[in-house]
Specification:
102 residues; alpha+beta; three-stranded antiparallel β-sheet; single chain
């Protein structure tokens, strides 16, 4: 599964450029879904400045926020997003059929 960050929103607390919300997409190359989530509060001790933040870090923060306080993998929102993408791809797609009168 390919997770991408499509937009971020920031506050200037606890530091300038603190990412507080991220929009994301999840794709398997065929199907894609999009959503957004509020991130867990930033820790000022391990704060990473906006200019030093990578997409991989934000993807991990999104996943951490989605599954915060999840103790059972069955309830994992990360797994649910990935399942929805897989299900969309596996759904039977109708085929274009030549017109019978052509």
């Amino acid at each position: 599964m390919n997770w991408k960050i499509t937009q971020i929103k920031t506050f200037n607390n606890p530091e300038i450029g603190t990412i507080v919300n991220a929009s994301f997409s999840v794709s398997d190359g065929t199907s894609t879904i999009e959503s957004d989530t509020n991130l867990l509060p930033a820790d000022s001790k391990s704060f990473i400045s906006l200019e030093n933040t990578t997409e991989e870090q934000v993807v991990q923060w999104v996943k951490d926020s989605l599954d915060h306080n999840i103790t059972d993998e069955f309830f994992s929102q990360v797994k649910q997003y990935e399942f929805i993408v897989e299900r969309k791809t596996k759904e039977t797609q109708p085929q274009v059929t030549p017109l019978p009168w052509a």
